[in-house]
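Posted in: Structural Biology > Protein-Ligand Complexes

Title: Requesting predicted complex, LASSHYVV in pocket

I'd be grateful if someone could produce the 3D structure tokens for the following input. Sequence and ligand are given below.
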Amino acid sequence: MPRFAANISLMYTEWPFVDRFAAAADDGFEAVECQFPYEVPAETLARRREAAGVELVLLNAPPGPAGARGIAAVPGQETAFRASLLEQALPYAQALGCPRVHVMSGFVPDGRERADVQPTLVDNLRWAADEAARAGVTLLVEPLNGRDNPGYFLNRQDHGHEIVAAIGAANVAVQFDLYHAQIVEGDLSVKLARYLDPAHPTKVGHLQVAAVPDRGEPDAGELAWGHLFALIDQLGWPGWVGAEYRPRAGTRAGLGWFQPWRRR
Ligand SMILES: O=C(O)C(=O)[C@@H](O)CO
Ligand SMILES: [Mg+2]
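-- Reply #1 --
Done. Output follows.
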């Protein structure tokens, strides 16, 4: 049965960030994920995570300068990218026992084409994969929809897998967020079956869900959640499914969808 991790950057915002591990644990989550944890010292978060008895299964590398959505595909930002990985993302992952780091590629700079900047992303991630392997971390690239993120470098699942193939490292994979994938390309059942197949040459390292179009709880909107969760189960997905949504009317009020999947 799918194992869900609460995204404590979008859920549990009624609590201060450090209290969200315990709030999620109280609701039966065995794991959480987060976006950018860097405002709180890693040691504080590690203590709070451990006290709550939940795993942290995913965090994001720093997004870069104000307004940026990552810098890994931005030519000229290589030094900043490497520093952010070595000084922030990997130390936080290690302190928190977090095995996955999502590296955001960023926006295609004005006047450039995707093809021009792709080598920057591939080179940065090849270098980063070696560093992450030493820390026992898998790096993820996530296609985001262009309606919420106009100009973002990576939008499609097949492009994510092309990037992972070009990097050619065992610890780089795609973060398959069904919310973004439905908006950009649809055909989710076929794509889940294709990319979660263990025989597929490039891997998915993490799944995420939210309703479309409102990015609320995975219990409404245009996707058939019963079908999708059963399919993820049938396909034998061994990983986590991040509940990365904005609660419509309070986190606890919206947890009805999770009750059949609670394991504690
Ligand atoms: O927006 C998403 O979807 C994510 O997974 C975030 O990590 C990007 O900030
Ligand atoms: Mg996501």
